[in-house]
Design brief:
By secondary structure, this protein is an alpha/beta fold. About 25% of the residues lie in helices and about 25% in strands. β4, α5 and β5 form a beta-alpha-beta unit. It binds pyridoxal-5'-phosphate.
């Protein structure tokens, strides 16, 4: 196996599940969001661990992600968060996946007694757009026809849900506004005798910052992986993924030596250049050229020169013993130093979500417990 691996610490994952649960009000269920291969951590292993640790349901983005979990034997409820096409909807229902409804054609397809394809009762979650502006029906469009169809015997109304746009930032006003709209919808449903089993609105940030938004289920992703849902995170969370490689080559070079594509780094004095076999095709982004640090032998070193597709270079003082085969920590901690996915994200002007989901499939995941 190649030297570059992502280690997924399942013990930390389970601790993060407990950390989330300790912040939930009694009776609030945890739906663990495992979309995008569990944010790059590996959907199946993560799903198994979080369910063991007490999550009651899973969420994915795509029907195919849900089908893969079903085929691997996961029998917990799985909600598909994204909007499937009509043919994907049939596949979702056939695989006992819960789906979001808000799109009239798909809703009609599901509830139409004449519709071909749908074999069993679809478990649906009504998705309300209270201000995210992405998918979901506007509260004002929940007309009598919709309310009637929600009562169709062809569907089971499992949930009603919305999604916040600003729970992670200073968005108290906008979150409060979205809450008010959502509460109006809940009241409308109640008045019409509709009582979905689950009411859910909160992602990680909202679940942790706005207990009033927990209702009876929360959809938590990023916090389970120990990354920032907002900053700073409570200390009870720790990052689940670390990224490591090994030095493949070390060379001593004189002052004024130029390194890498574009010769963007010139050595300020005689030093060593260590090469590490990871690059942007592995998800170690080119934006970190001359702009990130790694840990070798419990010391931090700067990445120098451009990140290439498959390799990067590290600047090492002449007197430091860094040798071929030495372990390189690109994300993680060692010897009291830490390089977090969130730190790297800030350096590249992005968020930790994008860093971990961006770790390529060609990087093997190793699971430790
Ligand atoms: C991804 C997603 C979540 C989880 O968000 P985190 O910030 O990772 O907790 C929750 N709800 C929906 C609709 C999502 O798409």
């Amino acid at each position: 196996m190649r030297a570059t691996v992502a280690t997924v610490h399942l013990d930390r994952l389970r601790k993060n599940v407990q950390a989330v649960q300790s912040l939930l009000s009694p009776g609030v269920g945890l739906m663990a969001v495992v979309k995008a291969n569990a944010y790059g951590h590996g959907a199946l292993r993560v799903a198994q661990s979080v369910l063991e640790a007490g999550a009651m349901a899973l969420a994915v983005a795509l029907v195919e992600e849900g089908v893969a979990l079903r085929q691997a034997g996961i029998d917990a409820p799985i909600l598909v968060l994204g909007q499937p096409t009509v043919s994907e909807v049939d596949e979702a229902v056939a695989n006992d996946l819960d789906i979001v409804v808000f799109e009239p054609l798909i809703f009609k397809h599901l509830t139409d007694p004449q519709a071909a394809g749908v074999q069993r009762r679809a478990r649906v979650h009504l998705k309300i757009d209270t201000g995210m502006g992405r998918i979901g029906i506007f509260p004002g469009n929940l007309d009598p026809l919709w309310l009637e169809r929600l009562r169709s015997p062809r569907i089971a109304l499992e949930g009603v849900m919305t999604h916040f746009a600003n729970a992670d930032s200073c968005g108290i006003e906008s979150t409060t506004q979205q809450m008010a709209e959502f509460l109006d919808v809940l009241e409308l449903l109640r008045v019409h005798g509709l009582s979905p089993r689950y009411v859910h609105a909160a992602n990680s940030a909202a679940a942790l910052r706005f207990p009033g938004a927990q209702f009876n289920m929360v959809r938590v992703g990023i916090a389970l992986y120990g990354l920032e849902a907002f900053a700073p995170m409570p200390p009870s969370f720790s990052p689940v993924m670390s990224l490591e490689s090994r030095v493949t080559y070390v060379k001593a070079v004189p002052q004024g030596f130029k390194v890498g594509y574009g010769s963007t780094y010139t050595t300020p004095g005689a030093m060593k250049i260590a090469t590490v076999p990871i690059g942007y095709a592995d998800g170690y982004r080119r934006a970190w050229s001359n702009n990130s640090r790694v840990i070798i032998r419990e010391k931090e070193y700067a990445v120098v020169g451009r990140i290439s597709m498959d390799q990067l270079t590290v600047g090492v003082p002449l007197n430091d013993a860094v040798e071929i085969g030495d372990r390189v920590v690109l994300i993680g901690e060692s010897g009291g130093h830490t390089v977090g996915a969130d730190d790297l994200a800030r350096a590249a002007g992005t968020i930790g979500y994008e860093v971990v989901t961006g770790i390529a499939n060609r990087v093997p995941r190793i699971y430790v417990d």
